[in-house]
Amino acid sequence: MAWLTPHFSNNDDVKKWIYEWIAAKEPAFFHDGIHQLPERWEKARRRVQTRKLESLSTLTDIRSSQLPIVSILRNN
Fold first, then answer.
1. CB under 8 Å to 6, separation ≥6 — which residues?
2. Which of 6, 57, 72, 76 has a CA between 20 and 30 Å from the CA of residue 35?
3. For residue 3, how many C-alpha atoms fall within 13 Å in the half-sphere facing its CB?
4. Are the C-beta atoms of residues 6 and 17 closer than 8 Å to each other?
5. Along the chain (76 residues), what's the average pLDDT of each consecutive run of 10 residues?
6. Do residues 8 and 14 touch, judged by C-beta distance below 8 A?
7. Residue 26 DSSP one-character state
């Protein structure tokens, strides 16, 4: 819905839009969002940790597959 995307001519228009957007929100919007942050941060942290473990696993698989080559090179 491109027609809903605001377009601004200058910084003052941006500031005015932001202030109006904030003023139009109910206090519960901000309260709920702030109280959801710890759960959302934990979820993001777990996602990052999972990706790191997957990357480490892939790296370990690659290194394991190269071990015979490394041992041959070391013996020469």
1. 17
2. 6
3. 0
4. yes
5. 76 94 95 94 90 74 58 56
6. yes
7. -
The answer to pTM > 0.70 is no
**How many Cα atoms are found within 13 Å in the side-chain-facing hemisphere of 32?**
5
Quote the tokens at residue 42. Answer: 């934990």
Which three-class secondary structure state does DSSP give residue 1? Answer: coil
Indicate the residue type of 30: F
Q: Specify the residue for token string 């139009």.
A: 24
Amino acid identity, residue 47? R
- Rounded CA-CA distance 64/29 in Å is 51
User: Which tokens in the block code for residue 21?
Assistant: 């957007």
